């Protein structure tokens, strides 16, 4: 292994949640009088923490989202997860290989701890991630593209940033990893490589990752 720690993003990398959550976010924002397409949501919010949604809407319209926006949105998302969420194809094989080779890994997500856990329980990925391997933007205050979350995860896992590799599928996440001084592998199943500026390697099938990490 050329790295001492593999840090996974969650949404779109471990669980195939981005189509679900961006469809629901676009619909809810539109419902509240902020017309948003699915493509708009992916472009502006994919990979970000919820505070970015609030900040951009207020910046663009001068209006604040309702105080219960996050709770209502997450309620809709979790209900949809229970019906439709699946693990990203091939990710269990990657995790199994890392565990078998005793390679340290963790998840660092812009999503809340509750969102991470709901997704993992629903897809069965919870068996690969104990409490010590789960880090959320809630832990640091500033989500991606700030480097804080990745730096916090590396510190908690006892690995210096330059020995970490981050697996990301969003431009904001890649920016955060680069700012943290970490290597980045861009997962292009949903996001074109040209949008993941700063990633050192790219792959479109999760099963390819095992070979890239060697």
What can you tell me about this protein's structure?
The model has no long low-confidence stretch (mean pLDDT 95). β4, α8 (171-179) and β5 form a beta-alpha-beta unit. This protein has a six-stranded parallel β-sheet with strand order 3-2-1-4-5-6, with helices on both faces. The protein has helices at residues 18-31, 38-45, 50-61, 69-84, 91-100, 113-123, 148-157, 171-179, 209-213, and strands spanning 5-8, 105-109, 134-136, 164-168, 183-187, 201-203. The longest helix has 16 residues, at 69-84. α1 packs across α2 and α1 (18-31) runs antiparallel to α4 (69-84). It has two domains: 5-16 and 86-213, Rossmann fold (3-Layer(aba) Sandwich), CATH 3.40.50.1000; 18-84, DNA polymerase, domain 1, CATH 1.10.150.240. It is 44% helix and 12% strand. It has 214 residues and is an alpha/beta fold. The chain has nine helices and six strands.
